[in-house]
Description:
binds cytidine-5'-monophosphate, 5 strands
Amino acid sequence: MFCVAIDGPAAAGKGTISRAVAQHFGFAHLDTGLLYRAVGAKTMAGVPAIKAALALMPGDLDNPDLRGPEVAQAASKVAVIPEVRAALVDFQRAFARRSGGAVMDGRDIGTVICPRAEAKLFVTASAEVRAKRRFQELAAKGLANSLDEVLVDVKARDDRDMNRAEAPLRPADDAVLIDTSELNIQEAVDMAIHVVTERGAG
Ligand code: C5P
């Protein structure tokens, strides 16, 4: 059992780093943002948020539409509701304790979900760099509007995620900070693998 907790704001590179770390060590990976996105998507279809969170099934996560910017905003709105967060805790903790090792990325993994994770990373970058990356990612899928709009979206989500009362986005005291603003993917991944190795994985 080995849990790697990777937290940070939207589009800082958590997903890419998490997948690479999971692959390197042979661990399973859970993108916990997908849980909130799946609940957010259900609210867009008219289901009340708490009801949607309580009824969430693993199959609900396999929906490519969850990646879009409207769902991201809906996700960060349902994520402020304490009952929604509570409904998703058991699934996340069970995943963290799986025997083959786990990498989990999100906003509150190192602080709330796995406070005793063997390795904790906080991956961040400037809002402008993150918006630019997210814009390129969305544009490639034909989902983006303009860079300015993406920047406004990223900042609105940062604000909601950092200032909510329940499980706000912040680095755990024992997290290692990786600022990816000036790093390429390989450099960021190498740094993360180094930290996780030092914590005893592999
Ligand atoms: O990581 P992603 O951008 O997919 O997350 C979507 C939203 O879900 C975030 O803006 C945040 O509000 C919420 N979230 C959360 N806690 C997590 C993961 C995501 O509150 N562990």
